[in-house]
Write a structure and sequence with these properties.
With about 450 residues, the protein is an alpha/beta fold. It has 17 helices and 20 strands. It catalyses: UDP-N-acetyl-alpha-D-muramoyl-L-alanine + D-glutamate + ATP = UDP-N-acetyl-alpha-D-muramoyl-L-alanyl-D-glutamate + ADP + phosphate + H(+).
């Protein structure tokens, strides 16, 4: 009996444990932190051995295969020992993909992954049997075990792609690449870029690669690296024989002379980045033979993703917007770009070596006040102190929202778009977004 050891007892770990057990592995789950009670209950109920608050090397280094949580860096001593022992280390998407013949649509990129994945799933589910997994919802492994859909839309991170071997999506989407998580890539941007492009490394000429042709990093990489898959670019400025582009305020998607035309003004979501998200999702749907009318209707009624430019409430003619999912500067760039009114901007958290220069033009144009919400706001105060008349710091979400309420006048926006990770004051970006919404509702 082959031994499968799983490092990390979260959603992907427990899902893999269930699938592994069903496929006849001797399964052991080990987590250095505490496993949440709901996951413990699942493991106990399924008679799967586990430990938490420690990693017992004697129980790990005898594995035939190890699935590690994407959150564990390769630099960790235990991982080094595992690699030295020659044990095969894979990610959940790699392990799970061996047990399904489903058509896979996989989406990666620094920003926009969740929106494109949710939008693609929203369109496909109108006509196909399709699951949504990866970094969203129930784990891929668990869904293969319980639902076994014929199609899956997967949101995948660079960390998950770092540990693939044979993983091969039929349709791969790359949204954009901006510096993020560089601490995991020896602070070398090229390592992070290479990691993202692993999404297409196993593709053949029968597969498709949908990507943002306006992204210089992607375009440059493609110039220097030949790929096998069929390219379907999308762009706001260029036109293509095969791909998606803009003409006279319409999105045009053209694949082998088969067109879809969609008026931009009918899209449910605002902002240039959402035009791109619509292009990417529709191209995938078009490839999977979804009817044009279904694609159009789905783009018109899609509600968006929680914590991503989510309109919370309008109070005294001030719109409060939750963009807690903006954990890097590039995501905040899209948020500020789409603001149509003077904005009170709530920013801050754990800075991942951020370079804020790309948002300067929008801060000068649109931001009337900045509220820094983090344990250490020095860099923000120094960077933006001279750009706005009002800059205030706090360490409490409730206080940040009260300050914003006092500063904002009728017609303004109050935008939470932190550009940073959330781990200094919050459990995660969802917790941060929920606290923001709660504070707004209490005003």
């Amino acid at each position: 009996m082959k031994r499968l050891v799983i490092l990390g007892g979260g959603e992907s770990g427990v899902g893999t444990a269930l699938l592994g057990k069903a496929k006849g592995y001797d399964v052991f789950v080990s987590d250095k932190g505490e496993i949440k009670q709901n996951y413990k209950d699942v493991l106990i109920h399924n008679e799967i051995k586990w430990e938490d608050k420690q990693h017992s090397e004697s129980l790990i280094l005898n594995a035939d295969i190890i699935m590690k949580s994407p959150g564990i860096p390769d630099k960790v001593e235990l991982i080094q020992k595992i690699k030295t022992a020659g044990i095969n280390v894979v990610s959940e998407i790699e392990f799970a993909s061996h047990y399904t013949d489903a058509t896979l649509v996989a989406i990666t990129g620094s920003n926009g992954k969740t929106t494109i994945a949710s939008l693609t799933h929203h369109i496909l589910k109108q006509e196909l049997d399709v699951g949504l997994a990866g970094n969203i919802g129930d784990s891929f492994a668990k869904q293969i075990l319980e639902k076994n859909h014929q199609n899956y839309v997967l949101e995948v991170s660079s960390f998950q792609l770092d540990d693939i071997q044979d993983f091969k999506p039929h349709i791969a989407i790359l949204t954009n690449i901006s510096p993020d998580h560089l601490d995991r890539y020896d602070y070398k941007f090229e390592n992070y870029i290479a990691s993202k492009f692993r999404i297409i490394e196993n593709q053949t000429e029968d597969d498709y690669f949908i990507y943002d042709a306006d992204d210089e990093v992607i375009s440059e990489w493609l110039e220097n690296n030949p790929i096998k898959s069929q390219k379907l670019p999308f762009s706001l400025t260029k036109e293509f024989e095969n791909g998606a582009y803009i003409k006279e305020e319409n999105i045009i998607i053209n694949i082998d002379n088969n067109h879809i035309i969609m008026p931009i003004k009918k899209l449910a979501l605002d902002g240039k980045h959402n035009v791109k998200n619509a292009m990417a999702a529709s191209t995938a749907a078009h490839l999977l033979k979804i009817r044009k009318q279904t694609i159009r209707e789905s783009l018109e009624n899609f509600q968006g993703v929680e914590h991503r430019l989510e309109n919370v409430l309008r109070i005294n003619k001030v719109q409060y917007i939750n963009d807690s999912k903006a954990t890097n500067v590039n995501a905040t760039y899209f948020a500020l770009e789409s603001m149509q009114a003077p904005t009170v901007w709530i920013v801050g958290g754990v800075d991942k070596g951020n370079d804020y220069r790309e948002v300067f033009q929008f801060v000068n144009e649109k931001v009337k006040a900045i509220i820094c919400l983090g344990t250490d706001n020095t860099k923000l105060m120094q960077t933006f102190g001279n750009m706005v008349d009002v800059i205030i710091e706090t360490q409490f979400m409730s206080e940040a929202v009260k300050i914003a309420y006092k500063i904002a006048s009728a017609g303004d926006n109050v935008l939470l778009s932190p550009a940073c990770a959330s781990f200094d004051l919050f459990e995660n970006y969802e917790d941060r977004g929920r606290q923001f919404k709660e504070a707004v509702r209490k005003l």
